[in-house]
Amino acid sequence: MLYLAIAALSFAACSRPYVVVQIADAQFGFTASDKCEAEGVEYDFDVKYERECLTKAVALVNDIKPDAVVFTGDQVHHALHDQEWKAFRRVIYGMDKDIDVFHLPGNHDVQVWDPALNIKTIGDHTIDMQPYELYNSRSQFCHEEKGLALVGINSNLVKYEDPREGDQFAWLQKVLDRNKDKVTLIFGHHPFFLKDIEEEDGYFQIQKSKRKIYFELFDKYGVDAVYTGHLHDNSEGEYLGIPSKTTTSVARQLGGGQPSVRVITVSKGKVYDEIVRIH
After folding, report:
1. d(Cα 79, Cα 108) in Å, to the nearest integer?
2. Is the pLDDT reported for residue 238 higher than 70?
3. Which of 78, 88, 119, 171 is most open to solvent, judged by the fewest CB atoms within 10 Å of its CB?
4. Considering Cα of 199, then 252, then 31, then 122, what sign does the dihedral take?
């Protein structure tokens, strides 16, 4: 069992490692909504599949007893659907209260106004954060503990050209500088790239024009790894020696993955991770 392996690693290191569980794309309502769309009928609130999957993930988390859990976005499928948000929150309420829990927004957790599609903006912004902010107090974070920094960014600002990206980039530079001597893990929703930093732009990735800007910043301040979601499948690449890993959905799959979480273990300055199926 995974938690036995963690215990063994702890014994070998003579001190308990720091463990993070990443949970990606629970996306309550996705499965039923997709089915209704295919059948040409109106979506009727149904989160049964996602609730079952996330409930199993919460049980796994409570079994492992990690230090932290990071939800890397798309908690719901419809940002304005209050019942989906409440159903998601009810499940995660069962998580052990001693575990630090962090949330980041995915594209389905906010309203995206895309100028490329001739969709209006909200003032000067391309992202309406209000649906997400009704349930979450922050859309970025820096958690520092035991020689480790967990840094979460709002990748929507990067992907959808929101003017607030500049402020976030300045904040990111500041927190990375402050933690440059620590093991540092970056979390976000959108992958910077899936396999190769030079791959062409697509729906899932951050724009090619921005990738090296961020990874050169990560390299400058000694970031150890980047973890994202959004793909509903597993993928990984590397640039400047920094692993970039995309974690599949805890529920609905769009590729060959299985409902899973990623368990990240930091021990003696080294980062290890593995995909753990919830079924």
Report:
1. 6
2. yes
3. 119
4. negative
